[in-house]
Amino acid sequence: MSRPVRLALLAAALLSSATADAMDDFMRASSSGPLAMTFCAKNSDGSKIEGGASKFCKANGYDKHVAAVEASFAAAIAKAPANVRPLFKRDQVWFNEMIQEAAYTVEEADEAELRQNMTNVLRQRATVLDDLARGFGRSGLTGGWANAFGGITVAATETGSYRLDAELNSDYGSDKHWHCTLTANVKAGADGWLAGVTVPTQPSEPGAKPADPVSIKLRRQGDTLRVVILASEEQWSFSNDPDCDRLGQVTGTYFASAKQNGTDKIDTAFVSPTFDCTRPETATDEEICADPDLAANDQRLNRAWKALLPRLDEATRRGLTDDQRHWVSAQSLQYPEFLHPAWEKQTSAMHYTVFGRDRLDSLQRERIALLEGFDDKRAGLAGTWLAYNAVIRITVDKDGSVDAQGWKWSQADWKGGCDYEISGDIKGGTFQSSEQRKNPDTLERDHGMLVVNRLDDVFARKREGKNDNADDEAKCKRNTTISSTARLFPAKPSEDIDKPTSAIR
């Protein structure tokens, strides 16, 4: 959709959301938040510490290290291109989040090793930022790249491929830490990405399950390098590689470390979505700007939306526009919360992005499948029907018997949805449920849409029994407080709807 339409839908979604205030807590763009490290200057309740820094910080010299980090960041951000600056700010915010949590542990534990670890991390961050300040504008792919969680080195090989060596370390002075050392071989593909597989270290324990290689790809996104692990959730959670605690740490945005232009020729274009990446409004916007695939998905959604709307009748167009408004809310505010690209970073010191990146990609691709494959010529009930919060698949046999299976989910609580198990017959062109009770489930066409249970919340909540309400039954057995009604749209068969690559529900 065009930028004005997208902004209008986003504004409507934010205003209509009962939980819009949560945007200030963890849904807004990280780059729009405070960039200063506060653990030396503020108490745990947010109040300022008299004297400028806590005794804990002064005694260990942390206040000076913090000042050095902030000075290095200020020098580096001034050199960052405008479309990369929010991503660089986000990286610093994430570093600050981890160091803030680590500081609580270090002060409470009062152990020399932890205190020294924190000193080392602060010193290293200042050094890394100084190197990144010199790296903006670097051409090619080879050389060092870094972010708040570690670094990678890319080297060209004699065969024309590239070798990637990564070392990620989330030990920030606290008792929580992950470490991942990883090697991979990649080569150029037709889609602009360099792709290949990792070379895992094998476990030495007798009888241990071998560590499997997983797919990985990387690509320049303007002045950044985007690296993506393409693994199943089981693979990245339990890789069995003794040198890599969590594969999920590897997925992320990396910045060039020092200006060492490579001799290799590589496309360094920044793939822009339909909105301005210099001013991302939500954390989801930031993640889309960080990833060429997600940005391309956003463009594709825009094209599909523009192409579809003129084909639809007025009623279907109004219904789909309303559904799109809710879908924009689902993408931007990310309910359920685990769809949010920074969600894991807010709930754990173990920062990684593979969860959010893959689920956002699946959410976009599912919507693209609906808009591009919108079956506006469909007659009758049979087929797949999709909405922002529901999916149902209907089969109609030659004798007119109908079987409908599906699910409606709550964006605020994905476990509290409704299961659709509807059966009946088509008689005189009208669906009649096989249920022998009052208030049976209904299926009916409304222009290009499918309506389940009349869009009537009272009707859609309860099936009435025969004997003084003794046989009453909630239509949503998993959550009796929500309505089973839904308005859905015709989608052609698609793997992105039937078998999404990530668990988006």
Tell me the span between the first and last alpha carbons: 24 Å
Q: How many discrete structural domains? A: 2
Helicity, as a percent range: 25-40%
Largest sheet: 8 strands, antiparallel, barrel
Structure write-up:
By secondary structure, this protein is of the alpha+beta class. The chain has 13 helices and 18 strands. It has an 8-stranded antiparallel barrel. Helix 1 crosses helix 9. Residues 277-335 form the Lysozyme inhibitor LprI-like N-terminal domain. Residues 463-505 are annotated as: Disordered.
Spell out the key features of this protein.
505 residues, 8-stranded antiparallel barrel, 8-stranded antiparallel sheet, 13 helices, 22% strand, alpha+beta, 33% helix
Helices and strands in order:
Layout: H1 3-16, H2 55-60, H3 62-77, H4 85-109, H5 112-135, E1 143-147, E2 150-156, E3 162-169, E4 179-188, E5 194-198, E6 215-221, E7 224-230, H6 233-237, E8 252-256, H7 283-290, H8 292-308, H9 314-333, H10 343-347, H11 354-372, E9 383-387, E10 390-396, E11 401-410, E12 413-427, E13 430-433, E14 443-446, E15 449-452, H12 457-461, E16 462-463, E17 473-474, E18 486-491, H13 495-498
Antiparallel strand pairs: 1-2, 1-8, 2-3, 3-4, 4-5, 5-6, 6-7, 7-8, 9-10, 9-18, 10-11, 11-12, 12-13, 14-15, 15-18, 16-17
Give the structure's gist in a few sentences.
Residues 1-22 form the signal peptide. By secondary structure, the protein is an alpha+beta fold. Helices cover 33% and strands 22% of the residues.
